[in-house]
Amino acid sequence: MKMRTRIIIGAVGAVAAAVLTLLVISAGLEESRAAAARSAAMTTALEEYFELSTLTTEYLVYHEPRAERQWMSKHRALGESLYALVPAQPSDAAVIDRIRANHAEAVGLFARIADTHARIDADPDVVREAEDRLTARLLITMQTLVSDATLLGRHAADAALEAQARSLMTSAAMAMGAIALLLAISVWSLTEYLRPLARLQAAVHAVGRGDLDARSGVMRSDELGELAVAFDRMVGELQESYEMLRDEVHERRMAEAALQEYRDHLEALVDERTEELLRVNEDLVTATRAKDDFLTAMSHELRTPLNSIIGFTEILLQRLPGDLNNEQARQLTMVRDSGKQLLALIDDVLDIARINAGRISIAPAEFSLRNAVDRVVEMMYPMADAKDLSLTVTYAEGAPDAIVSDRGKVDQILLNLLANAVTYTDRGSISVSVRPDGVDRFAVDVADTGLGIAREDLERIFEQFYRAHHDLAATHPGTGLGLPVSRRLAEALGGSLSVVSEVAKGSTFTVVLPVDGAHPAPDREPVESGE
Ligand code: ADP
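Above: inputs. Below: predicted complex with adenosine-5'-diphosphate.
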């Protein structure tokens, strides 16, 4: 049952008890008022009897007609009030009947006395005797009346007292009953609500202390029950969330522990691998050094006989030792070209070995850039002519002339770029342009209208031994070392080498160098001297 319904029922019960109590009290009061009225009526009747007795005596003594009239009227009035009497208790009914009979008899006796008295012709002794007899009977009747009236009066007074006492007792009993009822309802309500409230409070305290297993367990159909059910449900959900969280934290801790273990292991592994790598690196450095030393030595050893072969072949071709037939001249030319090609390859290998070993020697000196460029271009004219390519040089305004750099290295870079331009261009032109680049740098662009380079090869052509046009290997001999060597040389001189190209349209290689290359650039690799 809902609390509101209980409160309404309680209130209605209390109001009903109060109304009932009031009704009972007012009934009691009414009863005691009726009893008091009866008692008052009897007192009045009694007083009137005494008055009547007085009047009777008065009449009997003086025989005045006024007293007779008064007696009769008083008697009539008394008779009326007698008929209005109500018995206070059952036995009073007989008394009232007797009073009424005596009253009627008294009236009769009084009338006969008056009658006797009025008889003037009669013998006075007979009249007196009759009068005395009637008077005696009247007095006895009157006395009986008075004593009956007194009895009724006493009964009425007792009844009034009893009614009052009863009314008081009933009121007190009703009040006590109402109080007891209210007390019982209050105690019942309190125990009804206090017990579950205490359980709910205990559960709240337990949850507050962290005991999420605690539940109030209150099962009721009212608001308190709803509150308890909602609380228990809430604690249940809280417990579920807490358990999920605890599991998650546990899992996370496990994962962290595993991670830590892995990290520790990883650190050890990294240390181990690093040591291994350092060892391998040392071995590699030693091996590379040995290889470079070997290459340098071998190249040197190869160059000497190769130069002799080329030199003697040249002498034979110049026909200094004697004449040659055409076939001999053709084959000797092949020997000389192959020898030169081999020498170029050895030079490239030697260069790359030196560069890799960090053994490039830079010897900066002041020279004329224009002279250097012109000379290299001149050297390339025969090759360009042979392929019917135009070869031009331009100097932009502000292009420096006197520069400080390693001329040999600058020549080598320009020769490489021009040789490639001629090699990979079948028709069109090759142009060399010198221009300033910023305040203290200059750039040399070597542009051709040749095969061009695919986008994906643009950076790879600077890798060692990489060749972009594999399909042309037979007709365009090369090593794939020219560009990597050139780039490393340009960097060693404090500059850079880059390219822009489009397939079938041509390429432009740009070398940028400092005007004053006496001081190495900050990002330049340390350079060792000596070969
Ligand atoms: P290679 O001896 O093969 O010329 P390089 O290192 O000088 O070696 O050049 C690498 C590759 O770059 C060449 O094989 C060629 O495919 C490409 N290449 C270089 N210069 C040019 C150019 N001017 N035009 C087109 N391709 C070029």
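Residues 3-194 form a domain with the Four Helix Bundle (Hemerythrin (Met), subunit A) fold (CATH 1.20.120.1730).
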